[in-house]
From TrEMBL:
Keywords: Signal
Organism per entry: Ginsengibacter hankyongi
Organism domain of life: Bacteria
Signal peptide stretch: 1-19
Protein name: Uncharacterized protein
Length: 224
């Protein structure tokens, strides 16, 4: 049986009860069979490491090209591992995943594509925001922060906090970026006039992620 490992929280914040439970082949097929884990969160940390508040529908593409629709998926932002849920049981995907698509809402066009072969510094799954001469991707990191403290007046709670970082990948070098006009100008300097005209014509506010990405997508479409 192929190995699937799941944990909702890191070993320091979780107690595990493991039960070997093979899934029926008519549920998702052999590529998704494996160990079944039950997890109980540690009450010392508020929240959980899952990136999405609700489990999302999506699609998984294996390295051999096979596609599988999944009804409930989520990303463990602490370990950068994708999970899926069936009948209240949670499993972790194997390392044979090439791409994961998350349907973010009811809009069929609102899809987040994750791949683990984009960031030159790691094999973590990252969200692809745009691809081309300039590839923009986003990383997720969700870990416990703060400390549990109370002096009778002030109460602090250790909790999971999500951080996202955006990167521009050019010539296999990734640099963190901010969505603003200065970044856009630096990234598209060889097509400065064309991009500026596009931004002006479409009244884009490049401090907003959607508009910044529209400008990058336009730049990628007109080539070098």
């Amino acid at each position: 049986m192929r190995k699937l490992i799941f944990t909702l929280l890191s070993s320091g914040f979780i107690s595990l009860a493991i039960a070997q439970t093979p899934m029926s082949p008519n549920v998702l097929g052999e590529p998704f069979q494996g160990q079944h884990f039950k997890a109980k969160a540690d009450n010392d940390v508020e929240g959980d490491p899952l990136v999405f508040g609700d489990w999302k529908k999506g699609e998984v593409t294996l390295k051999n090209g096979e596609h599988y629709p999944i009804q409930k998926m989520n990303l463990d932002g602490q370990r950068n591992r994708f999970l899926y849920q069936i009948n209240d049981s949670i499993y972790e995907f194997q390392d044979n995943i090439r791409e994961i698509k998350i349907y973010n809402g009811d809009d069929a066009n609102s899809i987040i594509v994750f791949r683990n072969n984009v960031d030159p510094e790691s094999d973590n799954f990252v969200a692809l925001l745009d691809t081309g001469k300039i590839t923009i991707f986003e990383t997720y990191d969700k870990k416990p922060e703060g400390e549990n403290y109370s002096n009778g007046i002030v109460n602090n709670t250790r909790k999971y906090v999500l951080h996202t970082t955006q990167y521009a990948l050019i010539n296999k070098v990734a640099n963190p970026i901010k969505f603003n006009s200065s970044t856009l100008e630096d990234l598209t300097s060889d097509k400065k006039k064309e991009v500026e005209a596009f931004v002006k014509e479409n009244k884009l506010k490049v401090k907003k992620e959607p508009d910044f990405l529209k400008a990058i997508n336009y730049y990628n479409s007109i080539g070098s």
